[in-house]
Design brief:
292 residues, Thrombin, subunit H
């Protein structure tokens, strides 16, 4: 295995257990900056972000979906407490499922992080599930799509050389959801208000706003987004325009051991920080031909 591949496959270990979402990549660890801004889609006040959430999917292992009948899949009911997270943590009782996040850029094309789809095995070994939201007990088969082709993929590391994205074709056009609008020209400014939509820790879909761009680099920018493993591949939006600015790909450590209990709690730092790395969507070169 190459050095890059090793970096991209380090598992997040929580109290001796490997989470179902964490083995998607080493660089998906994230954390909470200041106040925890994560909200379930149904509870979020921003109508624009709630609408955009319809076009965000979770990557789920084929083996974690089993047919209940002609219309629905079932899935294992494992929550954060089962994985060693303290019961006082937000969403600790919610069931986890996706290992990564992704989003529609065309009717049958989805973008995610490069470390979430490294080869065809990652493509064919997983499904993409829309509408995995809080309270979901079974998944409608009409909201589940297979990956049939990897149209583009890059995974390189470094301050200047970072590239972390994958483009996949789904088995059919996605119905009832619109491809997201992408910012393919210009550069977002430091201080731009941003939000992320995805599956932190494999949880049901969450929207997290209240963040800004902190620092810019050639291919990516840093932000103080509240994200976790499972958010890798999430779209990061300009909160005002609704445009996708980039792909959430990397961050700081998301959980630490509790000082008083034998369990893990969220890693919390000042809101002035910003170590969550977002790969600029305009740097995904293949998209210019695929969506024009």
């Amino acid at each position: 295995m190459t050095k890059i591949a090793l970096m991209a496959t380090k598992a997040l270990i929580i109290t001796g257990l490997t989470s179902n979402f964490a083995i998607a990549g080493a660089n998906q660890n994230k954390l909470i900056y200041g106040v925890d801004n994560r909200e379930d889609v149904a509870n979020h006040a921003d109508a624009q972000l709630v609408n955009l959430a319809k076009s965000v999917a979770g990557q789920v292992r084929n083996s974690n979906l089993y047919s209940l009948d002609d219309e629905f899949f079932g899935f294992p009911k494992r929550n954060l407490r089962d994985m060693g997270i303290c019961k006082e943590e937000r969403f600790s009782e919610q069931t986890t499922l996706p290992r990564c996040s992704g989003f529609l850029v065309a009717k049958d094309i989805l973008v995610t992080a490069g470390h979430c789809v490294t080869d065809m095995n990652d493509c064919t070994g997983h499904k993409w599930v829309f509408d995995y939201t809080a309270g979901t007990e079974k998944i409608a088969k009409k909201n589940v799509y297979s990956c049939t082709e990897v149209l583009g993929q890059k995974l390189t590391m470094g301050i200047f050389a970072t590239k972390d994205y994958a483009i996949v074709r789904l088995d059919r056009a996605v119905e009832g959801r619109e491809p997201l609008k992408l910012k393919m020209k210009g550069n977002p400014k430091t201080g731009t208000e941003i939000a992320v939509i995805g599956h932190p820790s494999g949880l049901p879909l969450k929207i997290a706003g209240g963040a800004t761009i902190k620092k810019k680099r050639i291919n990516f920018f840093y932000a103080n987004l509240d994200t976790y493993g499972g958010n890798s591949g999430s779209p990061v939006f300009d909160e005002n325009t609704g445009e996708v600015l980039g792909i959430l790909v990397q961050g700081a450590r998301d959980y630490v051991r509790s000082a008083t209990q034998f369990c893990q709690v969220s890693n919390r730092v000042s809101n002035d920080g910003g170590d969550e790395k977002v790969f600029k969507i305009k740097k995904v070169k293949e998209l210019k031909k695929l969506i024009d």
